Amino acid sequence: MSTKRTLILDKEQIRQKSIRIAYQILEDNFEETSIVLAGIADRGYVFAKRLQQILAEIAPEKKFELLKISIAKTKRSLDATADEPLEIAKDKVIILIDDVLNSGRTLAYGLGLFLDIPLKKMRTAVLIDRSHHQFPLFSDYYGLKLSTILKEHVDVVLEESDGTEDAAWLS
After folding, report:
1. pTM, rounded to two decimals
2. Is residue 157 assigned to a domain?
C-alpha cells in the first residue's frame, strides 16, 4: 500500500458538506415532524450526532432522534445491535448514516436491522461515496462522490472519535 496520502476534505469542507446534507434531509422530509438518524458506529455515529445538531439548529420545531448501530463489519452475516429499542423507528423516516460508502455491505447490514419494523421511508447519508458498490445500496445524501481504484483507501478522521482535526484522506 502506498504511504502517500492526499487530503480530499479538510475541516471546513467537512463542516460545509455536513450542513448541505442536513438541508437536503430537511428538503426531502419537510412534512415530517420526527426523523430518526441511525448512525453506524463509530464514525458514522459521530457524523449522525453532528447532523442531529445541525438539523436541530435549522429546524428546532422538528424532533431528530438518534440511534447508534453497532455492526460486526468483518463478519459475513448480519451481527448488529442498536443502543435504543428499534420500535422508536416505527412508521417514521429513517436516515441510515455512515462516514464512507464503499461496497455497501455495512449499510446493507444496517438496513437489515429494520427489516421487521414498518418504516415510512429509509434513506442513506454518507460523507464520502466511493462508488465501489457490491450491494444494491446507494447514497441518497452524500458530501463527496469519489471515483477511486480498489487498492486506494479513504480514511475519515473526526475529532470526537480520533482526537485530531477533522479531515478525509485518500491513500
Report:
1. 0.92
2. no
